[in-house]
Design a protein that fits this description.
By secondary structure, this protein is mainly α. A hairpin with a 5-residue loop joins β1 and β2. The chain is built from 4 helices and 5 strands, in the order αβββαβαβα.
Protein backbone atom coordinates (compact mmCIF):
# COMPACT_ATOMS: atom_id res chain seq x y z
CA UNK A 1 0.00 0.00 0.00
CA UNK A 2 1.11 3.45 -0.80
CA UNK A 3 0.48 6.03 1.84
CA UNK A 4 -1.10 9.14 0.44
CA UNK A 5 0.61 12.23 1.57
CA UNK A 6 -0.10 15.85 0.92
CA UNK A 7 2.12 18.78 1.20
CA UNK A 8 1.71 21.21 4.05
CA UNK A 9 0.97 23.95 1.51
CA UNK A 10 -1.92 21.95 -0.01
CA UNK A 11 -3.38 21.27 3.42
CA UNK A 12 -3.05 24.92 4.42
CA UNK A 13 -4.70 25.98 1.14
CA UNK A 14 -7.66 23.59 1.71
CA UNK A 15 -7.92 24.83 5.28
CA UNK A 16 -8.02 28.48 4.17
CA UNK A 17 -10.77 27.64 1.65
CA UNK A 18 -12.82 25.96 4.38
CA UNK A 19 -12.23 28.89 6.75
CA UNK A 20 -13.36 31.33 4.03
CA UNK A 21 -16.48 29.23 3.43
CA UNK A 22 -17.16 29.11 7.17
CA UNK A 23 -16.78 32.89 7.45
CA UNK A 24 -19.11 33.41 4.47
CA UNK A 25 -21.75 31.10 5.95
CA UNK A 26 -21.42 32.76 9.34
CA UNK A 27 -21.97 36.18 7.76
CA UNK A 28 -24.97 34.85 5.86
CA UNK A 29 -26.41 33.37 9.07
CA UNK A 30 -25.89 36.68 10.90
CA UNK A 31 -27.64 38.56 8.08
CA UNK A 32 -30.58 36.16 8.18
CA UNK A 33 -30.84 36.47 11.96
CA UNK A 34 -30.80 40.27 11.69
CA UNK A 35 -33.51 40.18 9.01
CA UNK A 36 -35.59 37.82 11.15
CA UNK A 37 -35.28 40.16 14.14
CA UNK A 38 -36.28 43.14 11.99
CA UNK A 39 -39.32 41.27 10.63
CA UNK A 40 -40.38 40.25 14.15
CA UNK A 41 -40.05 43.85 15.29
CA UNK A 42 -42.09 45.09 12.31
CA UNK A 43 -44.81 42.50 12.99
CA UNK A 44 -44.97 43.52 16.64
CA UNK A 45 -45.22 47.18 15.66
CA UNK A 46 -48.00 46.45 13.16
CA UNK A 47 -49.85 44.36 15.74
CA UNK A 48 -49.42 47.13 18.28
CA UNK A 49 -50.96 49.65 15.86
CA UNK A 50 -53.52 47.30 14.29
CA UNK A 51 -54.93 45.73 17.45
CA UNK A 52 -56.45 48.90 18.97
CA UNK A 53 -57.98 49.88 15.61
CA UNK A 54 -59.36 46.38 15.14
CA UNK A 55 -60.81 46.29 18.65
CA UNK A 56 -62.46 49.69 18.16
CA UNK A 57 -63.91 48.68 14.79
CA UNK A 58 -65.22 45.38 16.15
CA UNK A 59 -66.82 47.23 19.06
CA UNK A 60 -68.67 49.45 16.58
CA UNK A 61 -70.38 46.31 15.27
CA UNK A 62 -70.65 44.39 18.52
CA UNK A 63 -72.41 47.10 20.53
CA UNK A 64 -75.49 47.40 18.32
CA UNK A 65 -75.76 43.66 17.66
CA UNK A 66 -75.69 42.87 21.40
CA UNK A 67 -77.92 45.85 22.28
CA UNK A 68 -74.95 47.56 23.97
CA UNK A 69 -74.50 44.70 26.40
CA UNK A 70 -70.87 43.98 25.56
CA UNK A 71 -68.07 46.51 25.44
CA UNK A 72 -64.29 46.63 25.51
CA UNK A 73 -63.40 43.59 23.42
CA UNK A 74 -59.74 42.64 23.10
CA UNK A 75 -58.90 40.40 20.16
CA UNK A 76 -55.54 38.63 20.04
CA UNK A 77 -53.52 37.95 16.92
CA UNK A 78 -54.80 34.35 16.90
CA UNK A 79 -58.37 35.80 16.90
CA UNK A 80 -59.14 34.62 20.40
CA UNK A 81 -60.66 37.33 22.52
CA UNK A 82 -61.57 38.54 25.95
CA UNK A 83 -64.72 40.50 26.59
CA UNK A 84 -66.07 42.06 29.74
CA UNK A 85 -69.19 40.29 30.92
CA UNK A 86 -71.79 42.54 32.55
CA UNK A 87 -72.84 39.65 34.81
CA UNK A 88 -69.42 38.79 36.23
CA UNK A 89 -67.83 42.23 35.67
CA UNK A 90 -64.69 40.37 34.61
CA UNK A 91 -62.88 39.90 31.34
CA UNK A 92 -64.00 36.51 30.07
CA UNK A 93 -62.64 34.26 27.32
CA UNK A 94 -64.77 32.81 24.54
CA UNK A 95 -65.53 29.64 26.53
CA UNK A 96 -67.62 31.75 28.93
CA UNK A 97 -70.18 32.95 26.38
CA UNK A 98 -73.29 31.31 24.96
CA UNK A 99 -73.29 30.12 21.37
CA UNK A 100 -75.63 32.97 20.40
CA UNK A 101 -73.29 35.57 21.85
CA UNK A 102 -70.33 33.87 20.19
CA UNK A 103 -72.10 34.06 16.83
CA UNK A 104 -72.56 37.81 17.35
CA UNK A 105 -68.96 38.29 18.43
CA UNK A 106 -67.52 36.34 15.51
CA UNK A 107 -69.73 38.22 13.04
CA UNK A 108 -68.49 41.48 14.57
CA UNK A 109 -64.87 40.32 14.28
CA UNK A 110 -65.37 39.42 10.60
CA UNK A 111 -67.03 42.74 9.84
CA UNK A 112 -64.32 44.64 11.73
CA UNK A 113 -61.55 42.93 9.80
CA UNK A 114 -63.35 43.57 6.51
CA UNK A 115 -63.66 47.27 7.33
CA UNK A 116 -60.02 47.64 8.37
CA UNK A 117 -58.86 45.89 5.22
CA UNK A 118 -61.08 48.23 3.20
CA UNK A 119 -62.92 45.30 1.62
CA UNK A 120 -66.45 46.52 2.28
CA UNK A 121 -67.36 46.42 -1.39
CA UNK A 122 -66.65 42.69 -1.74
CA UNK A 123 -69.44 40.09 -1.50
CA UNK A 124 -70.06 38.74 1.97
CA UNK A 125 -70.97 35.07 2.41
CA UNK A 126 -72.74 34.14 5.63
CA UNK A 127 -73.82 30.59 6.38
CA UNK A 128 -76.34 30.20 9.21
CA UNK A 129 -74.64 32.88 11.31
CA UNK A 130 -77.88 33.68 13.14
CA UNK A 131 -78.93 30.18 14.18
CA UNK A 132 -78.48 30.93 17.89
CA UNK A 133 -79.48 34.59 17.75
CA UNK A 134 -82.72 35.80 19.32
CA UNK A 135 -85.23 37.86 17.32
CA UNK A 136 -84.22 41.27 18.71
CA UNK A 137 -80.52 40.79 18.07
CA UNK A 138 -81.27 39.25 14.68
CA UNK A 139 -83.06 42.44 13.68
CA UNK A 140 -80.13 44.54 14.93
CA UNK A 141 -77.60 42.40 13.08
CA UNK A 142 -79.54 42.47 9.81
CA UNK A 143 -80.07 46.21 10.18
CA UNK A 144 -76.33 46.63 10.62
CA UNK A 145 -75.55 44.39 7.64
CA UNK A 146 -77.93 46.28 5.37
CA UNK A 147 -77.02 49.78 6.55
CA UNK A 148 -75.01 51.70 3.95
CA UNK A 149 -74.77 48.49 1.97
CA UNK A 150 -71.90 48.60 -0.52
CA UNK A 151 -71.74 44.89 -1.09
CA UNK A 152 -73.78 41.89 -1.97
CA UNK A 153 -74.62 39.71 1.01
CA UNK A 154 -75.27 36.04 0.38
CA UNK A 155 -77.04 34.69 3.42
CA UNK A 156 -77.46 30.94 3.55
CA UNK A 157 -79.99 29.83 6.11
CA UNK A 158 -82.49 27.10 6.85
CA UNK A 159 -84.72 29.52 8.76
CA UNK A 160 -87.56 31.71 7.54
CA UNK A 161 -87.19 34.36 10.23
CA UNK A 162 -84.23 36.09 8.52
CA UNK A 163 -86.43 36.61 5.44
CA UNK A 164 -89.26 37.95 7.58
CA UNK A 165 -86.96 40.42 9.33
CA UNK A 166 -85.43 41.60 6.04
CA UNK A 167 -88.94 42.18 4.68
CA UNK A 168 -89.90 44.23 7.75
CA UNK A 169 -86.73 46.25 7.20
CA UNK A 170 -87.97 46.81 3.63
CA UNK A 171 -84.83 45.31 2.15
CA UNK A 172 -84.78 44.14 -1.42
CA UNK A 173 -83.97 40.44 -1.36
CA UNK A 174 -83.53 37.83 -3.99
CA UNK A 175 -84.72 34.60 -2.42
CA UNK A 176 -83.51 31.32 -3.83
CA UNK A 177 -84.99 28.22 -2.23
CA UNK A 178 -83.29 24.88 -2.63
Amino acid sequence: KLASTRSVEAIEYDLSLKEDKHASLSNERDTILQAEAMIKQAVEQIEHQFAPALNKTIQAYLSPITLNKYKSIKVSKDLTFTLESPESMKKEKETFFSSGTLDQIYLSIRLGIIRLLNQEDKPLLLDDVFTNTDETRLKEALTLLTKDLKRQVLLFTCHKREIDVLKTLKQKINLITL
